[in-house]
Design goal:
This protein is of the alpha/beta class. The chain has 29 helices and 8 strands. The chain has helices at residues 20-29, 32-50, 55-75, 87-107, 117-131, 171-183, 185-210, 216-225, 227-232, 238-259, 262-273, 275-278, 282-285, 287-298, 303-325, 327-332, 334-361, 371-392, 402-417, 432-440, 442-460, 468-483, 496-499, 502-523, 528-554, 562-572, 584-597, 616-628, 640-643, and strands at residues 150-151, 157-160, 163-166, 577-581, 602-605, 632-637, 650-660, 671-681. The strands form 2 sheets. Strands 1-5-4-6-8-7 form a 6-stranded mixed sheet.
Length: 687
């Protein structure tokens, strides 16, 4: 049997001939979001590289490209079986997707003040919406020229020479920027629930292909109720678009290999490769795709070269953007990026050698030494290690740069507030499997472990070969992520590392086991009612713990009122303003927001050692230079005492809202209060 031979996923999907059109619609509907993102990124990146990324030219190019790709790409997508899927399945999947989108639109976050990544992405996208190019030029003339005490960088916006480079890859800001330019900040933020709903839809399509069409609504529902999925769909997180590309890319690849069609293989590889343009971690996730494409080439399947070509183009686009427009960010993450590049090179070399070996001698016999019989035990051993890891290891990291030191200070403050032992260098990575159980429950992890073990046995026996690529990708990313999450460890923040592959992958394993159990119940002679009851009970075992964790947060909006207050602050700055932020926290949070959203020159005056505010002589000197340049200096600080010595203090920004809670050793519950204030003063000599 061929290692990539197609195989039916669920015998119950074979109904009557009237369902075939529903199956075609379901197959095409669930890859359309990924194809649309591929088309947009393919158009947007060259425009951004050329410095002319504005909405009208981008849309003018996107429409014909999308029409062409959707016409021919979707035409090449066929369902896995002749009578796969039904209109009930389509309706159920669309109902889950629509309900998820509606709930998220009612509760989406207005996180635009830079405290963590979502606001950084917002300000990145806002700059692109207004200027269409990088880097960011802060303009020295409104400040009366350079000054040793004056700087323009802030967290997530690196100052290199006289310009600023945003942190992170440009994929997500490129997706959102045209919406912000055409419809404003609220519309940009509201796009995240829409993209999140498309991710849920795409995951439903992947579930249908790997588990069975009737399981698509259940898969979509389970993912939709996982709190990390809700979290990344309420604020601007790159993981949301990455999930669309990952699920859609895998679905396209599965369809291509089953039907032996090159075009969906090319598009699938392109979608998977472009995850790097959205998040640099995608470079790790797609390494198994390289090996899989090599296997197809070795077996002389024409989809192999197409898959590899699409992957190379997508990864290449991401790396070119990273090297030219996000290099300071790549330099910051070099500690994990450089080893990953070496691993990627090794994978390419090993794959090339394996292609030659397999072409000459064929595939090895993996049934020797009873390897399939050891599969379940091996999977349980790996999961048992991660479960016992807190008893075996405490992960710490000594700071090597100012950002690491800031993270250590944050962890120390959080430990103090949570009444935990003070250990600021602790990373809590040893609890990574516990993080998973907090969000989908222990039963789901146990079901997924059994499912992964049985699937591995089937793959070693060359059965269920449609699972080969998804299994390799899920297993590789899950193990590497659990070993080294590489993120500030407070929850639910750190759960974003799990949402692109780990949590969806474990849900797929668990659902496959439930489908397998339901089929075997029927084969044992029990009726469809017993089989259906088995499936329902299994789904509830996953659903209930998931909802218990999510319930305390799913109905509470966070980070509300920030857009309206930011617009009010912009109006308060007045004509010909040059903003000088003289207090550290306000400078960190608002420097780029004012520069991009208010379109007002803004800079920060360096604070005194051991203080949070700037020296008065620096403030006065730079303010006088601003006046001499024909501008109005406007001083900003976190409270009235910061700015009162220079003029009449007035509060121009005030938000009292809720934010996600922070937890280190337990599942997150509820939200915490958040208050942000900005006070303004115009120096008396500036008028």
């Amino acid at each position: 049997m061929s290692v990539v031979a197609p195989e039916p996923t669920d015998e119950r999907d074979r109904k009557d001939p009237g369902e075939s059109r529903a199956g075609v619609f379901l197959a095409r509907l669930t890859v359309a979001p990924a194809l649309l993102l591929v088309c947009w990124l393919a158009v947007a990146l060259p425009l951004l590289m050329a410095g002319v990324f504005t909405p009208l030219p981008a849309i003018a190019l996107f429409v014909p490209v999308a029409a062409l790709v959707l016409t021919f790409g979707l035409r090449a997508v066929r369902p896995p079986a002749a009578h796969w899927g039904s209109w009930w399945t389509v309706g159920g999947l669309l109902a889950v997707t629509t309900a998820f989108c509606a709930v998220q639109l009612l509760t989406f976050s207005e996180q635009i003040v830079v405290r963590r990544d979502p606001a950084s992405y917002f300000n990145f996208a806002t700059w692109l919406a207004g200027h269409g190019s990088l880097p960011i030029h802060p303009a020295l003339a409104p400040f009366g020229g350079a000054d040793p005490a004056l700087s323009f960088g802030s967290p997530a916006f690196y100052q290199r020479g006289g310009v600023l480079w945003p942190q992170f890859m440009a994929g997500m800001p490129m997706i959102l920027a045209p919406v912000g330019r055409l419809a404003g900040s609220y519309a940009m933020l509201a796009m995240m629930p829409v993209i999140g709903a498309l991710a849920v839809l795409s995951f439903g399509g992947l579930t249908a292909r790997l588990v069975g069409a009737r399981w698509a609504p259940a898969g979509a529902l389970l993912l939709a109720l996982v709190w990390p999925m809700m979290m990344i769909s309420r604020s601007i997180y790159s993981e949301t678009a990455a999930l669309v590309l990952m699920c859609g890319g895998l679905a396209l690849t599965l369809d291509a290999v089953r039907a032996n069609r090159r075009l969906p293989a090319l598009l699938g590889g392109l979608a998977l490769g472009l995850t790097i343009l959205v998040r640099i971690d995608g470079l790790r996730d797609v390494l198994p795709v390289v090996a899989y494409a090599g296997l197809l080439v070795a077996l002389r399947r024409r989809t192999g070269s197409a898959l590899f070509a699409g992957l190379v183009v997508g990864v290449g686009a991401g790396m070119i953007e990273g090297y030219t427009l996000s290099r300071p960010y790549l330099h910051y993450v070099r500690g994990s990026l450089v080893p990953l590049l070496y691993i990627g090179g090794a994978v390419l070399v090993v794959t090339a050698v394996a292609v030659v070996v397999v072409r000459r001698w064929g595939l090895p016999n993996l049934t020797r030494f009873r390897l399939p019989d050891l599969a379940l035990a091996a999977v349980f051993a790996v999961m048992a290690f991660f479960a016992a890891r807190p008893s075996l290891q405490t992960v710490r990291r000594v700071p090597h740069n100012p950002d690491d030191a800031a993270n250590a200070s944050f962890i120390a403050a959080l430990q103090k507030s949570l009444r935990l032992p003070l250990d600021p260098y602790r990373q809590y990575s040893e609890l990574s499997l516990h993080w998973v159980t907090w969000y989908i429950g222990v039963p789901a992890v146990l079901l997924a472990t059994i499912g992964a073990g049985l699937l591995l046995r089937e793959l070693l026996l060359r059965h269920r070969t449609d699972w080969l690529l998804p299994y390799a990708l899920i297993a590789w990313t899950t193990v590497t992520t659990l070993w080294r999450p590489g993120i500030t460890p407070d929850q639910p923040w750190a759960s974003r590392r799990l949402i692109v592959v780990v949590l969806p992958g474990l849900l797929l394993f668990a659902l496959w086991l439930l489908a397998w159990a339901a089929r075997n119940v029927r084969r044992l002679g029990f009726g469809p009612e017993i089989a259906g009851g088995t499936a329902v009970v299994g789904v509830l075992l996953i659903l209930v713990p998931t909802v218990v964790t999510s319930a305390g947060m799913m109905t509470t909006p966070t980070e509300q009122g920030e857009v309206a207050q930011a617009r009010s602050m912009c109006r308060s700055l007045g004509p010909r303003a040059t903003v000088l932020i003289i207090e550290r926290v306000t400078a960190d949070r608002f420097t780029q927001l004012i520069r991009g959203m208010c379109d007002v020159p803004s800079g920060r005056i360096k604070v005194r050692p051991g203080s949070s505010t700037a020296a008065s002589e620096d403030v006065e000197r730079i303010s006088e230079k601003v006046v001499a340049a024909g501008r109005r200096p406007v001083l900003l600080g976190a409270n009235s005492l910061d700015v009162a010595p220079y003029g009449t203090a007035r509060r121009v920004y005030h938000v009292s809202t809720r934010r996600d809670s922070s937890s280190l050793v337990a599942a997150p519950h509820g939200t915490w209060s958040l208050a942000i204030n900005v006070w303004m003063a115009v120096p008396v000599y500036a008028g």
